[in-house]
Amino acid sequence: MNKNFRKVLTFPYILWMIGFTIIPLSLIFIYGLTDKSGSFTLSNVLAIFAKDHFKALLLSIALSVISTVICLVMAFPLALTLKGKKLNKGSLIVFIFILPMWMNFLLRTLAWLSLLEKNGIINTILNFLHLPSLNIINTPAAIVLGMVYNYLPFMVLPIYNVLEKIDDNTINAARDLGANTMQTITKVIIPLSIPGIVSGITMVFVPALTTFVISNILGGSKVLLIGNVIEQEFTKGSNWNLGSGLSLVMMIFILISMAFIAKYDKDGEGMSV
Amino acid sequence: MIFSKIRRVLGDIYLVFVLIFLYAPIATLVILSFNTSKSRNRWGGFTFDWYGELFKSATIMSAFRNTLVIAFLSALIATLIGTVAAIGINNMRKIPKTVVMAVNNIPMLNADIVTGISLMLGFIAFGISLGFKTILISHITFNIPYVLLSVMPKLKQTERVTYEAALDLGATPLTAFFRVVFPDIFPGVISGFLLAFTMSLDDFIITHFTKGAGINTISTLVYSEVRRGIKPSLYALSTIIFGTVLILLIVSNIAQNKINKRR
């Protein structure tokens, strides 16, 4: 009886996941693979090769790869420095990186507009110092900055989590055996932090690839990403079949990154918050 | 010796650099909330007017109320469903457990835009009109996985034996659960709730697709005003929210440190 009772406990959850995750996702497949009259077609998916769509997809991939690399390059030394500080139980670090999330995401991104504009704060400071001004607003560079800004915490936290678990004795042992700092990092610390790095990469890459908000605000609707194309099909163009078809293409990339996580982060070490 | 000192100083400089990067936009918003000028990049003098206007604006106050109510309810319901499910899943056999956990990861790893679109299509297919209800359901949906992931590790740490010992000593399963297991997993439940609350508060994309006309949260209100020019009262509101959370976190951190010291 006890065992049956435990099974009952999962029912609300399983029903919820079927009703609001699995069925809705299947609907994207149904819409994406049919035309307006309801008959099967691949044209919505193949529409990705149309000139404008393909250009948007390539740009999205390029910008999200660049942002992911920048986030990784910024986050790893940061996580190492934070580990060196030996904070008690990491409460402070989570605090520092979660806190900005309480300021609305759109307002935070919008604030970058004030900072980056032609007569914005950064340029005022640069002019004051007689330095050349920075004109990146409404360009892909501003979008990359917005992505790095918004998603950096998603890279720092998982890497910090795995670094925290590395025993100091392991590092000391490497030193005793004659490894210098660089060798310790490349031969010991990086291999041990792969699960965190991999989940960090997907946590940054997926939202960056699919964003439409950051490109809308910081790109001044001059730069179209694949997220913008899809969003417009649902809100303005209202060709839901085409929008779903393009979403299916995007889901291929998401599936690849999920497989990537499953391969390297078996225990979900990097995922735990 | 000198090298390690240099490295530490470099590390500190880098840390400060990242903190400036993370907090510069936030400082900008706080400063703008006190700016007399409506313009985003001209300082017109110091004022508290936007704070006064904030409480007079029915649009902002109702969006704020919606945001808080949805964040609280969705976090609460997700915590209930998630915690109860975690207990059941923890006792599952290996294969069904792997399947459930894989499905659990879908809303977390999937792109928000896909989750938002799929939920919208789902609501429309079942004839549920878009509004407050659909935003709430959507937020519960993306919150449950976070709760599950915070509770599961705590459950794994609790010993099955202690629960069985309680049963042997005459406790009913329910008493045994609430007196023995629940105190152990409580920190996970709380952190799941807080995480869910934060996620719901900060969400824009999923709300954007599932809200329908006539209802706004803070995020969707900001988005609709981006083109027209943001009312500085919205900066004032986010400054208040940010300040409140900052103070709460500092106070709880100090309290935690005091407790730790006493131990």
TrEMBL record, chain A:
Transmembrane parts of this sequence: 12-34, 54-80, 92-116, 136-163, 184-206, 212-230, 242-262
- What is this protein's record name? ABC transporter permease
Localized where? Cell membrane
Q: Which residues are in the ABC transmembrane type-1 domain?
A: 57-261
Query: Biological process (GO) annotations?
Result: transmembrane transport
Q: Which GO terms describe its cellular component?
A: plasma membrane
List the InterPro entries: MetI-like (IPR000515), MetI-like_sf (IPR035906)
Which keywords, in A-to-Z order, does the entry hold? Cell membrane, Membrane, Transmembrane, Transmembrane helix, Transport
Give the family, as the similarity comment puts it.
Belongs to the binding-protein-dependent transport system permease family. CysTW subfamily.
Q: How does it sit in the bilayer?
A: Multi-pass membrane protein
The question of whether Signal is a record keyword is answered with: no
Please report a single Pfam family linked to this protein: BPD_transp_1
What organism is recorded for this protein?
Lachnoanaerobaculum orale
Major subcellular location class:
membrane
Claim: Nucleotide-binding is one of the keywords in the record: no
Q: By its UniProt entry, which PROSITE patterns does this protein fall under?
A: ABC_TM1
TrEMBL record, chain B:
Q: Which Pfam families match?
A: BPD_transp_1 (PF00528)
- Localization in the cell: Cell membrane
Q: Which UniProt keywords apply?
A: Cell membrane, Membrane, Transmembrane, Transmembrane helix, Transport
One BP term from GO: transmembrane transport
A GO cellular component annotated for this chain's UniProt record is: plasma membrane
Location (main, coarse): membrane
By what name is this protein known? ABC transporter permease
Q: What is the lineage of its organism?
A: Bacteria, Bacillati, Bacillota, Clostridia, Lachnospirales
